[in-house]
């Protein structure tokens, strides 16, 4: 790109580092933000600045928060005996968007850095009765679930996982072997 357009080029480069944004899309976005809709560009810049300064991880569940403790962990109505374990803070946002789960969460990003003693203490203090595993289906997820069940087996908990298998409106020939196998394994009675 033109050497005289340093800041514009830097914006294109920065945008192209976002997941699923290529160079062409980044160029279109940068042009829109800098030329076509300056107000939008300034609004997005301000929103990013504010979000970066105020967003952190909850000290209890590891989800996103604008304080030390997130709104879910503070909400006493969410204390219903159910704890959903996810592998990333953004998974909480996806599940919350469904408006189907009203319990608490635990983010387990890395098994190496995970504090099992803290989780066990939390399970006891919050009177957790059911652990729901909400991981993407994979062999490594299955191994992780088995490991967690083993570590928590002495607590007399109910262990469940989100359903897996065939998504709606997809032909069987478009389903990967692993998902189709899980669909048969976890089939339900009619």
Condensed summary:
This protein has 190 residues and is an alpha/beta fold.
CATH architecture designation of the largest domain: 3-Layer(aba) Sandwich
Would you state the CATH class of the largest domain?
A: Alpha Beta
Annotated CATH topology of the largest domain: Dna Topoisomerase Vi A Subunit, Chain: A, domain 2
The description of the largest β-sheet is: 4 strands, parallel
Q: Based on CA inertia axes, which overall geometry fits? A: globular
- Helix proportion: 40-55%
- Give the ordered list of helices and strands: HHHEEHEHEHEHEH
The rounded Rg comes to 21 Å
Quaternary state of this entry equals single chain
SS field, number of helical segments: 8
Structural class: alpha/beta
| Total strands | 6
The average pLDDT value, as a whole number, equals 90
Q: Which stretches are low in confidence, meaning pLDDT under 50 for 5 or more residues running? A: none
The number of domains is: 2
